[in-house]
TrEMBL record:
<dbReference type="InterPro" id="IPR006329">
    <property type="entry name" value="AMPD"/>
</dbReference>
<keyword id="KW-0378">Hydrolase</keyword>
<dbReference type="InterPro" id="IPR006650">
    <property type="entry name" value="A/AMP_deam_AS"/>
</dbReference>
<keyword id="KW-0546">Nucleotide metabolism</keyword>
<dbReference type="GO" id="GO:0046872">
    <property type="term" value="F:metal ion binding"/>
</dbReference>
<dbReference type="Pfam" id="PF19326">
    <property type="entry name" value="AMP_deaminase"/>
</dbReference>
<dbReference type="GO" id="GO:0046033">
    <property type="term" value="P:AMP metabolic process"/>
</dbReference>
<dbReference type="InterPro" id="IPR032466">
    <property type="entry name" value="Metal_Hydrolase"/>
</dbReference>
<comment type="pathway">
    <text>Purine metabolism; IMP biosynthesis via salvage pathway; IMP from AMP: step 1/1.</text>
</comment>
<keyword id="KW-0862">Zinc</keyword>
<dbReference type="GO" id="GO:0005829">
    <property type="term" value="C:cytosol"/>
</dbReference>
<keyword id="KW-0479">Metal-binding</keyword>
<comment type="similarity">
    <text>Belongs to the metallo-dependent hydrolases superfamily. Adenosine and AMP deaminases family.</text>
</comment>
<dbReference type="GO" id="GO:0003876">
    <property type="term" value="F:AMP deaminase activity"/>
</dbReference>
<protein>
    <recommendedName>
        <fullName>AMP deaminase</fullName>
        <ecNumber>3.5.4.6</ecNumber>
    </recommendedName>
</protein>
<dbReference type="GO" id="GO:0032264">
    <property type="term" value="P:IMP salvage"/>
</dbReference>
């Protein structure tokens, strides 16, 4: 199932439109679907946009996330790319061109209006042979057949997206966010990179092994979209999944599907996730509604759509931003989350201020002792 094949993606478009029709009929579900850009050639974006526009793959209930597989080593081995810089240019240059001169890529400009952001995907358990540091080669000189590390991919995606977002904001267009797959497997430092560079992440299973990082994700309220049924088949049994612990501690978690054609059995894969999670972990109706509310907050849908789902004041903090008639989350739950977070942030701030004051006092005492010794 591809957008670029011998039938020009007609079959894929037909399936997607059926999914969109079901979402429009249900009225209570929206979806953020993934499409892939590989970075092998400069015309990938135009082909993808042409597929979306020509087949009219559009719905008010659907937004797109573009996932970039971390497969530079495969393309380099096949001599499809000269260096990592070429891959970055294939991914981002068409976006800059469509932003500066929309008429040069009319279909791409139209398609980008329905794109929320970018995802970075691949098997995180693959061993990394290099560490990203100040001695790492620049993208233009990365010509080895070894794959760059996770942090290298994420940093250069973030750097290019930041410049692109500044340009798009200045031109009056909407901006993109970085929401990578992270923490499903592999080393812990993937979560460190995502913490510094991402809007929110998918999976985050390894946070259960890194309490300090888990606390940082809580303090920063970085969203985590979790897919327990997919994880159950690939990495972690359902009963060991940390989602209920994350939720009880106040992390911003939501339920999401992942490869529903492989891991789900019904026509309502998201309802499967909610119903099984509720039965296995004995979630209350308040818990389920909080997960759903988090899902809307984390999504890339417009302010207008979020206002419809959560209420016009959803951006306000605490119970002031909660419209129980729409979210079905009690004000006391929202107030508890907000007050607890404020207390934790206050605790951290006071600890930092105390440490700084003690350092200043110690330096002053050393200076005074030195002055007395000189006299």
């Amino acid at each position: 199932i591809k957008t670029d094949n011998q039938v020009s993606g007609k079959y894929f478009a037909h399936i997607i439109k059926e999914v969109m029709f079901d979402l429009e009929e249900s009225k209570y579900q929206n979806a953020e679907l993934r499409l892939s850009i590989y970075g092998r050639s400069r015309d990938e974006w135009d082909k993808l946009a042409k597929w979306a526009v020509s087949h009219k793959v559009h719905s008010n209930n659907v937004r797109w996330l573009v996932q970039v597989p971390r497969l530079f080593d495969v393309y380099r081995t096949k001599k499809q790319l000269a260096n990592f810089q070429e891959m970055l240019e294939n991914i981002f240059l068409p976006l800059f061109e469509a932003t500066i001169h929309p008429a040069s890529h009319p279909e791409l400009h139209l398609f980008l209006e329905h794109v929320d952001g970018f995802d970075s995907v691949d098997d995180e358990s693959k061993p990394e042979h290099r560490i990203f540091n100040q001695d790492s080669p620049l993208p233009g000189t990365w010509v080895e057949e070894d794959n760059p590390p996770y942090s290298y991919y994420l940093y250069y995606m973030y750097a290019n997206m930041t410049v692109l977002n500044h340009l798009r904001r200045k031109r009056g267009f909407h901006t993109f966010v970085l929401r990578p797959h992270c923490g499903e497997a592999g080393p812990i430092h993937h979560l460190v990179s995502a913490f510094m560079l991402s809007e929110n992440i998918s999976h985050g299973l390894l946070l259960r092994k890194a309490p300090v990082l888990q606390y940082l994700y809580y303090l920063a309220q970085i969203g985590i979209a979790m897919s327990p049924l997919s994880n159950n088949s690939l990495f972690l049994s359902y009963h060991r999944n940390p989602l209920p612990e994350y939720l009880s501690r106040g992390l911003v978690v939501s339920l999401s599907t992942d490869d529903p054609l492989q891991f789900h059995f019904t026509k309502e894969p998201l309802m499967e996730e909610y119903s099984i999670a509720t039965q296995v972990w004995k979630l209350s109706s308040c818990d389920m509604c909080e997960l759903a509310r988090n899902s809307v907050l984390m999504s890339g849908f417009s302010h207008k759509v979020k206002s419809y789902w959560l209420g016009p004041s959803y951006l306000k903090e605490g119970s002031e931003g909660n419209d129980i008639r729409r979210t079905n989350v009690p004000d006391i739950r929202v107030s508890y989350r907000f007050e607890t977070l404020c207390q934790e942030l206050t605790l951290i701030t006071q600890a930092v201020q105390t440490a700084e004051l003690e350092t200043i006092q110690e330096e002053d005492s050393l200076t005074m002792s030195s002055s007395l010794g000189t006299q």
